[in-house]
UniProtKB/TrEMBL annotation:
Membrane topology field: Multi-pass membrane protein
Subcellular location: Cell inner membrane; Cell membrane
Keyword Disulfide bond in record: no
Protein name as it appears in the record: Amino acid ABC transporter permease
Keywords for the protein's UniProt record, in alphabetical order: Amino-acid transport, Cell membrane, Membrane, Transmembrane, Transmembrane helix, Transport
Originating species: Phaeospirillum tilakii
Family, as annotated: Belongs to the binding-protein-dependent transport system permease family. HisMQ subfamily.
PANTHER family linked to this entry: AMINO-ACID ABC TRANSPORTER PERMEASE PROTEIN YHDX-RELATED, MEMBRANE COMPONENT OF AMINO ACID ABC TRANSPORTER
Length: 390
């Protein structure tokens, strides 16, 4: 018996799908080739250099704040690294503080006290409806205009001074008991992480709850204190002192950094508060009632029963707010904080290689966003409910 002829590809759903996908990829590839070729031709016609060789050239501009040593004689690559570290610093601290502040305000939004509830609601409504850029300018103006000049600086302690140039703090020197103290702090942090892991394993196997908080506090305080005393209890400090019109020595918390960190924290915390409030309300009321019936205090009910369940609802939208905070840090250029975008703009203006500079900025922020999303997704997978096998 003769076989029927095979259907032609345009009569087959799979064949049509492959054709459409191939056509779409070809179209996108052609468009990309046209844009790249056109850009290169225009740059060549205007005698503008292309490529990333400029990263090895001398930057010839200073950066006011840097976590690693930097001078104007360093390369553009090192300048980009300095800007990236500044961005990471303010983003990491902003994420930490907005989480703490937002969680506190979110819980206050559900307080039985009407005054606390009204104050928390007023904060959320006021902060969320004012653009972040205006808030940054406000905090920066309050810090620079509302504080005295260095000669009239407020002496908070013996070696701590507050002025419109920032907060000057003493910094420990790498001598005396400082090395032993740093090693002890790192060892205590690792011990606390091991303790938390062991406590989870014990709770999962036997249901027994270890006094994790008290043990962690004892490790974080006792181990560094013992190392400090054993090393001679000597902590040499580099203290700030007034020299001319400004302070020298010590470490400075600049007005630009403080205004940016405070603005990002306050703004993002308002959104985090609503996320936390929604997560708490998503927990069935019966869970709270059952915990209260067992004799738990309201504080322990919130910490041990409600928040662990609300975390499963909170984490996904919280990831978006963390990403927004990291990307909103680019507004630092408005108040003079040398973040990655500010350094990139200076490099672009000096070299004229805007395409490469913008490509670097896009690649860095794409990497940061994807990395943060990956970390939060892994954490979300750990706290998510796992259904049993059928």
């Amino acid at each position: 018996m003769e076989r029927p002829p095979a259907p032609r590809w345009w009569n087959d759903a799979r064949g049509r799908a492959l054709f459409y996908q191939a056509a779409l990829l070809a179209g996108l590839g052609g468009l990309a080739w046209f844009l790249i070729a056109n850009t290169l031709a225009n740059l060549e016609a205007r005698h503008i250099a292309t490529g990333f060789a400029f990263l090895g050239q001398e930057a010839a501009f200073g950066i006011g704040e840097h976590l690693i040593p930097y001078s104007a004689a360093d390369s553009y690559l090192r300048a980009f690294v300095v800007g990236l570290l500044n961005t990471l610093e303010v983003s990491a601290l902003g994420i930490l503080f907005c989480t703490l502040l937002g969680g506190l305000i979110g819980a206050a939004r559900l307080s039985p006290n009407p005054l606390v509830r009204a104050l928390a609601g007023g904060y959320v409504e006021a902060v969320r409806n004012v653009p972040l850029l205006l808030q940054l300018l406000l905090w920066y103006a309050l810090i620079t205009e509302g504080l005295p000049a260095p000669r009239q600086a407020l002496a908070l302690f013996d070696s701590v001074f507050l002025s419109n140039r920032g907060l000057k703090l003493p910094v420990p020197l790498w001598a005396g008991a400082t090395p032993a103290l740093c090693l002890a702090v790192a060892a205590a942090a690792l011990a606390v992480m091991a303790l938390a892991w062991a406590a989870r394993r014990i709770r999962a196997r036997s249901g027994r709850q270890l006094p994790t908080f008290r043990l962690a506090a004892a490790l974080l305080i006792g181990l560094p204190l013992a190392a400090f005393l054993a090393a001679g209890a000597e902590l040499p400090l580099e203290r700030p002192r007034l020299a001319g019109f400004n302070f020298t020595g010590g470490v400075t918390l600049t007005p630009e950094f403080a205004a940016l960190l405070f603005g990002l924290t306050v703004y993002t915390a308002a959104f985090v508060a609503e996320i936390v409030r929604g997560g708490i309300l998503a927990v069935p009321p019966g869970q709270t009632e059952a915990a209260l019936a067992l004799g738990l205090s309201r504080g322990r009910v919130l910490r041990l029963v409600v928040l662990p369940q609300a975390l499963r609802v909170v984490v996904p939208p919280l990831t978006s707010q963390y990403l927004n905070l990291t990307k909103n840090s680019t507004l630092a250029v408005a108040i003079g904080y040398p973040d990655l975008v500010s350094v990139g703009n200076t490099a672009i203006n000096q070299t004229g290689q805007a395409v490469e500079g913008v490509a670097i900025l896009m690649a860095v922020y794409l990497t940061l966003s994807l990395g943060l999303s990956l970390a939060m997704n892994r954490f979300n997978a750990r706290v998510a409910l796992r259904g049993g096998r059928p």
